[in-house]
Amino acid sequence: MRRGVLAVMVALVAAGVGVAGAARDPNAALEDRIRNADSVRVVRVREPVSGETGAPGEDRLADFIVEREGQAPGALQASMAAALTEAMHRFPAPETCSREPGLRRIRFGVQFFAGDLRITLIVYLADRCFEFWTGRTFAGSAELHDVAPRVLALLKQAFPADTTVRRLGLSGLISCEDVVREHPEAPLVTQPPEATRIVPAQYPKAAKKAKIEGRVRLQATIESDGTVSDIKVLESVPELDAAAIAAVRQWTFEPGLDCEGRAVAAVLVIPVNFKLD
């Protein structure tokens, strides 16, 4: 019997199948379409600010503002497809990328055209993650991990005249000098705020009675004097949101600093966890 089991295991490994079931790559079909795409478009993008809208279109890229068009000759297309599909295969994730806001965080759109199918990848370099969409349908995401240096090198090739992209390091963060050059009107936070007083959230009695647990993610503006002003709910647990907001409003901070060491307002993402004993 043992010999029979061993023979089956050897046969599975020889066929490229893992012994533990070797779940099929959930993105295999999409990866194949990307590798065999007819053409590719590489762009540098940013999310719209208040009052802006993206370009008209029926794909995810239309939700962004395209800042610059990159170059994508055939050799770069093949290398970009190989690097990104490797990450899709090795490091798949089912949810959208967890990403932080800020002017130093650069974003890219890589769009593969395969027949009538348009596959859009939004690369959040500093967050080591990218999402892939077919049209406006979210298809998945992947983490970059050790593929990040290859993707960064390819993006630099795609934007040879973009000083900001050429000077990017592995952190994926735009340098202070380049942010100031590109956004002279915007204060740059180089040192994030640090909490000096944390007020625990009070567990709502109704939520405790109903045994409701969870995490509320808040986006708060920390003013230059260290006080909390505008608060938005990014990840909601309806029964717990108000308690989380009430607690964070009482927090105080050492304010964030810009490139010149001056105190400036900054946006911070704050998770508030509720767990019953």
How would you characterize this protein structure?
This protein has helices at 2-14, 28-35, 74-90, 148-158, 163-166, 176-182, 205-209, 241-248; strands at residues 39-46, 65-69, 92-93, 107-114, 117-124, 129-134, 137-143, 194-197, 214-222, 228-235, 252-254, 256-257, 263-264, 266-274. The protein is α+β, with helices and mostly antiparallel strands and 277 residues long. The strands form 4 sheets. Strands 2-1-4-5-6-7-3 form a 7-stranded antiparallel beta sheet. A 3-stranded antiparallel beta sheet has the order 10-9-14. Strands 8-11 form a two-stranded antiparallel ribbon. Helix 2 runs antiparallel to helix 3 (74-90) and helix 3 (74-90) runs antiparallel to helix 4. The radius of gyration is 23 Å and the shape is globular.
Name some characteristics of this structure.
about 280 residues, about 25% helix, globular, single chain, alpha+beta, about 30% strand
For the sheet with most strands, the description reads:
7 strands, antiparallel
Q: Spell out the helices and strands N to C.
A: HHEEHEEEEEHHHEHEEHEEEE
Share of residues in helices: 25-40%
- The general outline is globular
Averaging pLDDT over every residue, what do you get? 88
Low-confidence stretches: 1-22
Q: Number of helical segments?
A: 8
Strand adjacency order, main sheet: 2-1-4-5-6-7-3
Provide the β-strand percentage band.
25-35%
Helical/strand content category = alpha+beta
The Cα radius of gyration reads 23 Å
Kindly state the number of beta strands. Answer: 14
In whole angstroms, the N-to-C terminal distance is 49 Å
